[in-house]
Amino acid sequence: MDKKLYELLLKNLSVRIFYKDKKSNYILINQAYSNDIGVKPEDIKGKTDFDIHPRYLAKFYRNIDADVIKSGKPKTIQQPYFLHDKQKQRLVEVTKIPVKNDKGEVIGVLGMLHDVTEKMQLIKKLQKTVKDYQESFQSLVDTITHIMEIRDPYTSGHQQKTEQLACAIAKKMGCSAKQIENISIASSVHDLGKIFIPMDILNKPGALNEMEFDFVKTHSTHGYNLLKGIKKFSDIAKIVYQHHEREDGSGYPEGKKCKQISLEAKILAVADVVEAMTAHRPYRPAHPLEKALEEIKRNAGILYDQKVVKTTLNLFKNKHFALNG
User: Fold this and answer.
1) C-alpha span between 118 and 83 (Å, rounded)
2) Could you say which DSSP state residue 265 is in?
3) Domain boundary among 116, 141, 156
4) Which of 119, 162, 184, 186 has its CA 20 to 30 A from that of 54?
5) Cβ distance 232 to 137 under 8 Å?
6) Are 130 and 33 found together in one domain?
């Protein structure tokens, strides 16, 4: 490249650029870097970071130089950075590249700095916004759960235990973080629709007749209708809607089969059955865990997804999970 063109590019680039020898002595800098540190390009040769920056930063910078020179590999880090008036601290992303001669020996370090102060400030603001939103969202979930448990004391703790088991199954099956989050929330509100079911049916000490059971079966649809209008809950609403569907099509509300049912709903279905069977109900005492596990094992591939059942059985067999009553 023509020397004048090279110098022109070096002078006008907004990226801060410097070149140091093996001893971390400056050889050259461009105008952008010169403006920041308050040293003219023609005066930089032979100076070190100790001549320019606070001592603690100079030591930090030189340690990075030494690492790049020793390893012979580029390195990119974020580091604090002072403008020459020493009053304004910025955050820069620095890429340091080893410069080698024809023999492959490192003879210096080429550095490029990008000011990322505003970028990081924006990221922090976004992170705070997301955190605030998540806290508000969790408060909404907690409120819904609390309302349900006040109305129906027999479901107290059921949602929480179902959520814990469902998430353990999902993690063991390698579900994504988003899937696990949706399963967690759906499990926490999966019986929301029961607020539309008369209390005398929910708390009936004996077996339900056909009409009463048909009434109870509407809770999946009621829960779905309550949740689907909330944007954040759209995927969760679908899980709630399907959690009583079964592999052979004998479930409700639509009688879906196998692949028509989402994996999240299949996981919730198994967790719900296991927890419900081991919990006390108005019409029966709690069953032992062994009976609940036998139920899902016997109906694997019939009512419940085989992989979900296998994972659940292994969780308990290997003592990776326990239902705490």
Assistant:
1) 15
2) H
3) 116
4) 119
5) yes
6) no
Asked if residue 272 lies in contact with residue 184, where contact means CB atoms within 8 angstroms, the answer is no
> Considering the domain boundaries, does residue 44 fall inside one?
yes
Please name the helix (run of DSSP H) or strand (run of DSSP E) that holds residue 242, with its range, or none.
Answer: helix 234-242
Q: Which long-range contacts (CB under 8 A, 24 or more apart) does 81-88 make?
A: 81/36, 81/57, 81/113, 81/115, 82/53, 82/54, 82/57, 83/36, 83/37, 83/38, 84/36, 84/37, 84/38, 84/39, 84/52, 85/38, 86/54
Structure tokens at 64: 């990075």
**Cα separation, 298 vs 260, whole angstroms:** 22
pLDDT in tens, 7-55: 665 666 678 889 999 999 999 898 888 888 888 988 999 999 999 888 8
Q: Do both 132 and 270 map to the same domain? A: yes
Measured between alpha carbons, how far is 83 from 67 in angstroms, rounded to an integer? 25
**131 SS3 class:** helix
Residue whose token pair is 């680039």: 13
- Domain tally for the chain? 2
Q: What is the CATH number of the domain that holds 84?
A: 3.30.450.20
**Integer Cα distance of 56 and 98 in angstroms:** 23
- Judge whether 272 lies within some domain: yes
DSSP for 155-214 reads: GTTHHHHHHHHHHHHHHHTT--HHHHHHHHHHHHHTTGGGGGS-HHHHT-SS---HHHHH
User: Is residue 15 in some structural domain?
Assistant: yes
* Domain assignment of residue 325, yes or no: no
Note the pTM of the prediction, 2 decimals: 0.60
Q: CA-CA distance, 48 to 146, in Å (whole number)?
A: 64
How far is 191 from 216, CA to CA, in rounded Å? 10
- Give residue 137's domain range: 124-317
User: Quick one: 159 and 196 in the same domain?
Assistant: yes
| pLDDT tens, residue by residue, 272-320 | 999 999 987 777 888 999 999 999 999 999 999 999 999 999 999 988 7
Task: Give the 3-state secondary structure of residue 151.
Answer: helix
